Amino acid sequence: MVKIQRAGADAAEFDRWDVEGMFGFLGRMDINKGVSEFRATDGAVLLDVRTKDEYRGGHVPGSRNIDVNQIEKVTALASDKATPLFVHCLSGARSGRAVNALKSMGYTNVKNIGGISAYTGPLEKSS
């Protein structure tokens, strides 16, 4: 947990991923570490929230694609709200929005792992 003191209020605690989800585009996350963690986590989903065209142009092997603007479709991939979801996009900004939306939908194990633009592993392309 990260504690943040606000003027005139008690210390508010924010989950680390909430803070990083909001500011992921600043480069605080390491997508390479996040993909490794995804691969080591049983039952996890690697969720790419870019557009279909972006996804087809190159994506992390094993990732699933749901455009951030259609994030409610995640229930088809993860009906259990405790499913570990590792979320990324191009830079980390859209994935931050997606993480916030997923948490508001009741998902409890959601992480913004940043942007594929920093990914150093192999990419798959699809037609």
In helices, the fraction of residues equals 25-40%
Fourth CATH level, the homologous superfamily:
Rhodanese-like domain
Q: What is the CATH architecture descriptor?
A: 3-Layer(aba) Sandwich
Instruction: Calculate the terminal CA-CA distance, rounded to whole Å.
Output: 42 Å
- Uncertain segments are 1-27
Q: How is the largest sheet built, in terms of strand order?
A: 4-3-5-6
Structural class: alpha/beta
Q: Give the percentage of residues in beta strands.
A: 15-25%
Q: How many separate helices?
A: 4
Q: Helix and strand string, N-terminal first?
A: EEHHEHEEHE
Count of discrete domains: 1
Shape: globular
CATH topology-level fold name: Oxidized Rhodanese, domain 1
CATH class descriptor name: Alpha Beta
Give structural notes.
With 127 residues, the protein is α/β, with parallel strands linked by helices. It has a single domain, classed as Oxidized Rhodanese, domain 1. The protein contains four helices and six strands; from the N terminus they run ββααβαββαβ. It has a four-stranded parallel β-sheet with strand order 4-3-5-6, sandwiched between helices. Strand 1 and strand 2 form a beta hairpin. The longest helix is centred in the C-terminal third of the chain and has 12 residues. The termini are far apart. The relative contact order is 0.24.
